[in-house]
Amino acid sequence: MRIQQTVACLLAVLLLLNIAAQAQKSAKPKADKNVPKYVCLMCKVGADKQGKCPICNLPMAKAGVYVCTECGAMADKKGDCPHCKKPMVKLSSLAKKCKVCGYYSDKNKKECPVCEYRKKMKSKKP
Ligand SMILES: [Zn+2]
Ligand SMILES: [Zn+2]
Ligand SMILES: [Zn+2]
């Protein structure tokens, strides 16, 4: 009986842990919805998928959770920038996804740099 009780108890704990893990999983993407997975540090644009930057055509780098607004250094943990010693800020608080092209950019910018660039390219062509 004792062993059975222990097993039942263990199962209950495992079940609870599983539920907790599932709850965490489903809650995470919601909080990080506004975060680009890849970024071009030169043009300050981001994307959901790995690929080349739509503006400068260089391969995009994997984005961190935190970013330094001074030099563009990225990190997964909160802290000061290793280069300029300034506190890093969350990337999600800076980025905004463009509804037209699907790329991310600085949310303080009025026009999306990717759309702006594409418009320029179009007007150049005869
Ligand atoms: Zn670029
Ligand atoms: Zn920095
Ligand atoms: Zn755009």
Tell me briefly what this model is.
This protein has 126 residues and is an alpha+beta fold.
Explained architecture:
33% of the residues lie in helices and 16% in strands. The protein is elongated and about 85 Å long. The structure holds zinc ion (3 copies). One zinc ion (ZN) binds next to loops.
Number of strands: 8
Distance between the termini: 85 Å
* Number of separate helices: 2
Domain module count: 2
| Elements, N to C (H/E) | HEEEEEEEEH
- Shape by Cα distribution: elongated
Structural class, from helix and strand content?
alpha+beta
Strand content: 15-25%
Major β-sheet, in short? 5 strands, antiparallel
Can you give the mean pLDDT? 86
Bound molecules: zinc ion
Q: Note poorly predicted spans.
A: none
Report strand order across the widest sheet. Answer: 3-1-2-8-7
Our Rg estimate from Cα atoms comes to 22 Å
Helical fraction: 25-40%
